[in-house]
Amino acid sequence: MFRKSLLAVMVSGLMVAGVQAAENQVNGYLFGNIGQADYDLGNLYQGFIGSVDETDTAFKLGAGVQLNPYIGIEFQYVDLGEAAYKEPGYKEMVEVEGFGANLVATLPLDRFKLYGKVGYHKLKFEAQIKDDFWGTWSDSEKDWITSYAVGATYALTPQFEVVAEYERYDDVADKFDVNIDIDLATIGLRYNF
Description:
single chain; mainly beta; 1 helix; 9 strands
């Protein structure tokens, strides 16, 4: 129910933003960010003898439209890297990647901008197990996931901005009966055109 409500709010926001865009100049931008994803696996491996690696390098690429100084829409591809559990003769890995859209609310402050995002993403969650005795097993699922972000930009020139952002992806991997949250902290560059 929450996801349907969120989708309805995003669609309504896009409709209002579209009407405002007809009255204002629309500006596009491209962006690329790189940083670290932190998988919150909870107590999934608590009590096990192996080691857990919940962080990995992650990145995202995308394009957006700034409909007015305060509202924008983004489309992005995100690769959240992998998390792994290892012990002698056994390894579990999970990887997450996918596409999505964000509704962006911006507060312009001269060369600085503060912003918040709410997003909806079709993410692919892939799990793989390698066992010296049983062999290899893998499975995957694709599901719609909500995300939230806050960030800031600083304009180096009118065309180029440096970006710092923190983003959270909620309840990844429902099919596997685990609710993994993934935090993503990135820095990047935005090109305005």
